[in-house]
């Protein structure tokens, strides 16, 4: 760490020397509206805090200066920033032409301002038409441009504007891995892209613990409780104004019917905004006892309002981005945010064409609490951005370079050429041990921690939290960015809710346990939970023999017998999350008793517990030990002793293993006749002992059409941990609900 800090200081020193020893970087930050200021303000505070490196000029334009939208330039002054220039650039109107005229007016006024300021670099945010005017002016006047939040995908004209600004910008700060890949695909210079996260998350992730009740009462009334009100924020869709007005009308009707206290914010300055305000007034929203209609809420207070709301509804990017940091339920209406990455707190209502659909969505979402999502940031964006700014060499050629295909396959690098590895925290709850590991995107176990699994629920949960917190802290030191937590556990699991429904007898006090909520609350990370057999199958699908295979089955042969079924590339859970309980396939009507209470299950024959039981019987009858074997008096008889005896020629031990292998083989034949996979993977400590027996039974007992199935032994050293990690790595940035 000290080495890299010194390297960073040395590089900054070299850049300062190249730029001239006494030259500070003159940064112009231009803000157009309340939304972009919430993203730019943390950067502005960071720049202002380092006057030895930077000079800050603030330009205010757009809806900041309009009374109907709250004269939001005042909040910039309240934050103690000197506003160098105010530009009135909004042409009032009801249609698309007004936006075009506003861009033209900004283009007329900006050159004089930029000539006077002569900034080294201009910071432009997002995808608004005002931002396009800023980027166009700066590019034509040979001023370097740093674009915040490029590469993202939504669903309106904003996409086109955002990507147009990307092509004008010289440097890019993006928020997600997906956005970074989009920028690379758009031929942007890989070395000028910084994956920093969203600057607003630096404030969001530390905001929830502040006093909030006074803020809620100020905006919604004295009698309002947390999680018992709604925040509504909806904007016109400029590519389909008529439909978006109708959708807003239906939303208000649904909110009136839902009968909860609601804070409604005025829409952005866009074509159609005035018509939306007229709809509000037509329905009497400003005078309705359940509604509070406001033009603007300061961002610090808005954070507290959405953090403790029962639900947020509308089509604002804030709903799919910032609100995820608190796990507040969100209803995203229409197509304005189509393509945005979202956490599981977001319910999409794409065709919000009836009041009933919106009302039903409110009934589904209101009052829920979801895991906190860090898709858009980890709270450290501003330090990365300031570091990035300090590294800019003003003597480099201004002309942009484009990197045309083939696109480089590696990920964007930080300023010190340190690659932060995308990783997961993997937790494996076994009958004996509790293990936590940091697992990289490539399946490398970077760090692993092991403790004995406590016997009680309270001790077990406390230990899980303690080990996860320690691992998450260590991840920083090993340069890993944790995307989420995946948990593999025995028993029947509801993966949708993150709840262990029923446990095996090997893990006590482990039924009806909500694992997701406490761990997500403690770590502020999304959490996934699944059965250990399913996790083994996921590990094979991502890292093992199952990679690229459409239909396969994994069987775990260890203390118990479990497994997972992948059909058409998807894991099968079943209607009550009981699919792939492969150890409880019955292969004999009068076989030995199983731990599940039934008789003749595969697990009663072929599990480690079953082999240990038979080994004890032989030992009690003095039939286990043969020449070449010895046991200490206090040594516990195990399945390993039975296997050793069979290898040394003990015929009774051989017979027991042969019966166990046959039972497992018959179970596999039943699986082949039921789901017809193309591959069977045997995993676990007993897999090598059973693989030949299973193949023999298939050749004798299976239908000819399935005898060609491949049966292989897993080559994964830790399928439970790798499977838990794949829960995170496969879905953390690609979940669509």
UniProtKB/TrEMBL annotation:
<keyword id="KW-0067">ATP-binding</keyword>
<keyword id="KW-0479">Metal-binding</keyword>
<keyword id="KW-0378">Hydrolase</keyword>
<feature type="binding site">
    <location>
        <position position="492"/>
    </location>
    <ligand>
        <name>an N-acyl-D-mannosamine</name>
    </ligand>
</feature>
<dbReference type="GO" id="GO:0008761">
    <property type="term" value="F:UDP-N-acetylglucosamine 2-epimerase activity"/>
</dbReference>
<protein>
    <recommendedName>
        <fullName>Bifunctional UDP-N-acetylglucosamine 2-epimerase/N-acetylmannosamine kinase</fullName>
        <ecNumber>2.7.1.60</ecNumber>
        <ecNumber>3.2.1.183</ecNumber>
    </recommendedName>
</protein>
<dbReference type="InterPro" id="IPR000600">
    <property type="entry name" value="ROK"/>
</dbReference>
<comment type="similarity">
    <text>In the C-terminal section; belongs to the ROK (NagC/XylR) family.</text>
</comment>
<feature type="binding site">
    <location>
        <position position="594"/>
    </location>
    <ligand>
        <name>Zn(2+)</name>
    </ligand>
</feature>
<feature type="binding site">
    <location>
        <position position="504"/>
    </location>
    <ligand>
        <name>an N-acyl-D-mannosamine</name>
    </ligand>
</feature>
<keyword id="KW-0597">Phosphoprotein</keyword>
<feature type="domain" description="UDP-N-acetylglucosamine 2-epimerase">
    <location>
        <begin position="53"/>
        <end position="390"/>
    </location>
</feature>
<keyword id="KW-0963">Cytoplasm</keyword>
<dbReference type="InterPro" id="IPR020004">
    <property type="entry name" value="UDP-GlcNAc_Epase"/>
</dbReference>
<keyword id="KW-0021">Allosteric enzyme</keyword>
<dbReference type="GO" id="GO:0006047">
    <property type="term" value="P:UDP-N-acetylglucosamine metabolic process"/>
</dbReference>
<dbReference type="GO" id="GO:0009384">
    <property type="term" value="F:N-acylmannosamine kinase activity"/>
</dbReference>
<feature type="binding site">
    <location>
        <position position="603"/>
    </location>
    <ligand>
        <name>an N-acyl-D-mannosamine</name>
    </ligand>
</feature>
<dbReference type="GO" id="GO:0004553">
    <property type="term" value="F:hydrolase activity, hydrolyzing O-glycosyl compounds"/>
</dbReference>
<keyword id="KW-0418">Kinase</keyword>
<comment type="pathway">
    <text>Amino-sugar metabolism; N-acetylneuraminate biosynthesis.</text>
</comment>
<dbReference type="InterPro" id="IPR003331">
    <property type="entry name" value="UDP_GlcNAc_Epimerase_2_dom"/>
</dbReference>
<dbReference type="Pfam" id="PF00480">
    <property type="entry name" value="ROK"/>
</dbReference>
<keyword id="KW-0862">Zinc</keyword>
<feature type="binding site">
    <location>
        <position position="581"/>
    </location>
    <ligand>
        <name>an N-acyl-D-mannosamine</name>
    </ligand>
</feature>
<keyword id="KW-0547">Nucleotide-binding</keyword>
<comment type="subunit">
    <text>Homodimer. Homotetramer. Homohexamer. The hexameric form exhibits both enzyme activities, whereas the dimeric form only catalyzes the phosphorylation of N-acyl-D-mannosamine.</text>
</comment>
<feature type="binding site">
    <location>
        <position position="532"/>
    </location>
    <ligand>
        <name>an N-acyl-D-mannosamine</name>
    </ligand>
</feature>
<keyword id="KW-0511">Multifunctional enzyme</keyword>
<dbReference type="GO" id="GO:0005524">
    <property type="term" value="F:ATP binding"/>
</dbReference>
<dbReference type="Pfam" id="PF02350">
    <property type="entry name" value="Epimerase_2"/>
</dbReference>
<feature type="binding site">
    <location>
        <position position="601"/>
    </location>
    <ligand>
        <name>Zn(2+)</name>
    </ligand>
</feature>
<feature type="binding site">
    <location>
        <position position="584"/>
    </location>
    <ligand>
        <name>an N-acyl-D-mannosamine</name>
    </ligand>
</feature>
<feature type="binding site">
    <location>
        <position position="584"/>
    </location>
    <ligand>
        <name>Zn(2+)</name>
    </ligand>
</feature>
<dbReference type="GO" id="GO:0005829">
    <property type="term" value="C:cytosol"/>
</dbReference>
<feature type="active site">
    <location>
        <position position="532"/>
    </location>
</feature>
<dbReference type="GO" id="GO:0046872">
    <property type="term" value="F:metal ion binding"/>
</dbReference>
<keyword id="KW-0808">Transferase</keyword>
<dbReference type="InterPro" id="IPR043129">
    <property type="entry name" value="ATPase_NBD"/>
</dbReference>
<comment type="similarity">
    <text>In the N-terminal section; belongs to the UDP-N-acetylglucosamine 2-epimerase family.</text>
</comment>
<feature type="binding site">
    <location>
        <position position="596"/>
    </location>
    <ligand>
        <name>Zn(2+)</name>
    </ligand>
</feature>
């Amino acid at each position: 760490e000290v080495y890299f800090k010194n390297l960073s200081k040395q590089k900054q020193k070299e850049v300062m020397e190249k730029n001239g020893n006494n030259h500070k970087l003159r940064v112009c930050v231009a803000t157009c509206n309340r939304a972009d200021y919430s993203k730019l303000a943390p950067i502005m505070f960071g720049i202002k805090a380092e006057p030895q490196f930077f000079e800050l000029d603030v330009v205010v334009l757009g809806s900041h200066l309009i009374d109907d939208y709250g004269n939001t330039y005042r909040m910039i002054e309240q934050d103690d920033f000197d506003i160098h220039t105010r530009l009135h650039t909004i042409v009032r109107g009801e249609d698309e032409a007004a936006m075009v005229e506003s861009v033209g007016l900004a283009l007329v006024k900006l050159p004089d301002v930029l000539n006077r300021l002569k900034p080294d670099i201009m910071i432009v945010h997002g995808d608004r038409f005002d931002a396009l005017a800023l980027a166009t002016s700066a590019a034509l006047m040979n001023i370097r441009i740093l674009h915040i939040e490029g590469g993202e995908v939504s669903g309106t004209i904003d996409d086109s504007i955002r990507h147009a600004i990307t092509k004008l910008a010289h440097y890019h700060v993006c928020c997600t891995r997906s956005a970074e890949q989009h920028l690379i695909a758009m031929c942007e210079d890989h070395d000028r892209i910084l994956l920093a996260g969203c600057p607003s998350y630096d404030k969001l992730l530390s905001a929830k613990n502040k006093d909030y009740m006074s803020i809620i009462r100020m905006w919604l009334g004295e009698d309002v409780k947390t999680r018992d009100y709604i925040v509504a924020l909806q904007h016109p869709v400029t590519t389909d104004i008529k439909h978006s007005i109708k959708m807003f009308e239906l939303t208000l009707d649904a909110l009136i019917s839902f009968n909860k206290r609601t804070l409604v914010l005025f829409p952005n300055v866009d074509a159609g905004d005035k018509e939306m305000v007229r709809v509000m007034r037509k329905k009497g929203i400003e005078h309705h006892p359940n509604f509070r209609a406001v033009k603007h809420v300061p961002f610090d207070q808005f954070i507290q309002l959405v953090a403790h709301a029962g639900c947020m509804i509308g089509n604002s990017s804030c709903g799919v981005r910032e609100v995820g940091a608190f796990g507040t339920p969100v209803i995203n209406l229409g197509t304005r945010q189509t393509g945005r990455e979202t956490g599981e707190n977001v319910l999409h209502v794409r065709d919000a064409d009836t009041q009933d659909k919106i009302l039903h969505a409110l009934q589904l979402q209101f009052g829920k609490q979801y895991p906190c999502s860090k898709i858009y940031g980890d709270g450290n964006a501003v330090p990365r951005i300031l570091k990035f700014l300090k590294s800019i060499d003003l003597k480099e050629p201004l002309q942009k370079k484009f990197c045309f295909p083939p696109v480089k396959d590696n990920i964007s690098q930080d300023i010190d050429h340190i690659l932060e590895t995308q990783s997961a925290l993997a937790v494996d709850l076994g009958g004996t041990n509790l293990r936590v590991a940091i697992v990289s995107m490539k399946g490398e176990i970077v760090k692993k921690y092991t403790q004995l699994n406590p016997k009680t629920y309270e001790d077990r949960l406390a230990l899980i939290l303690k080990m996860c917190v320690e691992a998450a802290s260590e991840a920083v030191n090993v340069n890993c960015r944790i995307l989420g937590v995946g948990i593999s556990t025995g028993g029947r699991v509801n993966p949708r809710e993150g709840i262990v429904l029923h446990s095996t007898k090997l893990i006590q006090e482990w039924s009806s346990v909500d694992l997701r909520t406490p761990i997500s609350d403690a770590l502020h990370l999304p959490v996934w939970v699944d059965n250990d057999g399913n996790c083994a199958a996921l590990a094979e699908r991502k890292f093992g023999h199952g990679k690229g295979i459409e239909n396969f089955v994994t069987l775990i042969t260890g203390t118990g017998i479990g497994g997972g079924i992948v059909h058409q590339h998807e894991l099968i859970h079943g209607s009550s999350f009981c699919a792939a309980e492969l150890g409880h396939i019955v292969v004999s009507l009068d076989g030995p008793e199983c731990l599940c209470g039934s008789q003749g299950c595969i697990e009663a024959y072929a599990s480690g517990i079953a082999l240990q039981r038979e080994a004890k019987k032989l030992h009690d009858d003095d039939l286990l030990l043969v020449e070449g074997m010895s046991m200490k008096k206090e040594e516990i008889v195990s399945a390993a002793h039975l296997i050793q005896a069979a290898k040394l020629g003990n015929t009774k031990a051989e017979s027991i293993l042969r019966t166990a292998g046959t039972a497992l083989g018959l179970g596999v034949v039943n699986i082949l006749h039921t789901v017809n996979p193309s591959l069977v993977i045997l995993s676990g400590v007993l897999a090598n002992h059973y693989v030949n027996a299973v193949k023999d039974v298939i050749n004798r007992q299976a239908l000819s059409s399935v005898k060609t199935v491949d049966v292989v032994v897993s080559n994964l050293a830790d399928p439970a941990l790798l499977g838990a990690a794949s829960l995170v790595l496969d879905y953390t940035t690609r979940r669509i609900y």
